Amino acid sequence: MRNSVRAFAVMALSVPALIGIAGVAEAQDKFKLGMAVGGNTCCEWMKAQGDVARALAEKEGWDYVELSNNNDPATALKNVQIFAQEGVDAIIQFNGQAASNPAISAVAKQANIPIVTYDIADPGMYFVGIDNLGAGIAGGEGLGAIVKEKWNCEPDLVISAEGAGAGIVNEWRTGGMRTGLGNVCPDIPKEKYVSFESQGDAAVGLPAARDLLAAHPDAKKIAVVGLNDGGVLALINAAEQLGRADEVIGWGQDGAFITGDNVNPHLVGSVFYFLEGYAVYAIKDVIKPIAEGNTPALKADAGDPASKVQPCPVTAEQAKSVPDMPERVKQLLAAPAGTTEYELFCPNKG
Asked: Torsion angle of alpha carbons 177, 347, 304, 284, nearest 10°?
């Protein structure tokens, strides 16, 4: 579309030649979507986000170009430059290295290419993502119910696995979980709340989690909240390595590690975002209107997004009823257009 043939001053050409040029014009007028997947090897859902976007783009009859950000800010910036060279009409990205987002946004703006960002806001990008504060509070209240039943609201520590790079998203999710826990257990002393930087990654956050536990050698009853399942698992894994996990319970965010055959028993709950299915929201509310010539007004604020994903809080027991991710993707792509995974799979729909 962006490279469409706009002039046909070829009246002297033969009929076959005209037909050939018309074919080229039709091909070049085809809408082209670029997708930059996160590319962090930690998480299968990042690849699945591309698989779903590709399938939905094909159903719409669009061209589709996919690149991986390789969880690297320089690569993420290079990818948007490649998309511009490829003549894409719109971009979707998940970029876990948010420091490069301003530069990415500037390149896309210069090339006049609208861009959707998943879950990490930038002023120049359409925000598609979860109700972060709602998800945080719901998860915190879920964990609070267990802390109340198990420990009479008297944990030794409440540990937050932060992800400062996510900015306000981390404040809403992780801070929201502390708020939700406090709604159920309002008398936990402030000094029992401590934090470490996990970067939302179980492996990356592990050393800092071990250091925090070492600084609190007498803590046994430990409740863990955080930016996502991976961050919470950083603390759980550290406690297991140190032989201190007997009374550690965590409630995550995003649902990435709460299904399947190897769910950590100390991960007692999470909030499903159904991350792999975000393209349903992005295409329905942003990309398809652009393709139809009805570009929506930019909504870049995580608090007032272009498309809001509904959170689905679950205990680990409830999560057993939710299919694993490959099966969810299969069922999602077989469902009527616009159907979300929340509608298909959430056992606690509001």
From this structure: 150
Mean pLDDT of 107-114: 97
Number of neighbouring beta carbons within 10 Å of residue 22: 12
- The DSSP call for residue 254 is B
The reply to whether 15-130+275-310 and 132-272 are identical in fold is yes
Beta bridge partners of 66: 35
Return the exposure string of 248-282: e unless at least 16 CB atoms fall within 10 Å of the residue's CB, then b: bbbbbbbbbbbbeeebbebbbbbbbbbbbbbbbbb
More reliable by pLDDT, 13 or 147: 147
Q: How confident is the model at residue 134 (pLDDT cuts 50, 70, 90)?
A: very high
User: Is the predicted pLDDT of residue 197 greater than 80, yes or no?
Assistant: yes
Domain boundaries 132-272, corresponding CATH code: 3.40.50.2300
Share of the chain above pLDDT 90, in %: 83
Question: Look-up: residue for tokens 């536990």?
Answer: 213
Question: What is the rounded distance in angstroms from the CA atom of residue 198 to the CA atom of residue 200?
Answer: 5
Give this prediction's pTM: 0.84
Q: Using CA atoms, how far apart are residues 43 and 50, in angstroms rounded to an integer?
A: 13
pLDDT above 90 (res 168): no
The CATH T-level fold of domain 15-130+275-310 is: Rossmann fold (3.40.50)
What's phi and psi for 214, nearest 5 deg? -65, -30
Q: Domain residue spans in the chain?
A: 15-130+275-310, 132-272
Helix, strand or coil, per DSSP, at residue 243: coil
CA-to-CA separations, 82 to 56, 87, 104, 111, in angstroms, rounded? 22, 9, 11, 11
CA distance 118 to 121: 8
Please give the single-letter amino acid code of residue 179.
T
CA 308 to chain centre: 12
Report d(CA 248, CA 255) in Å as an integer.
19
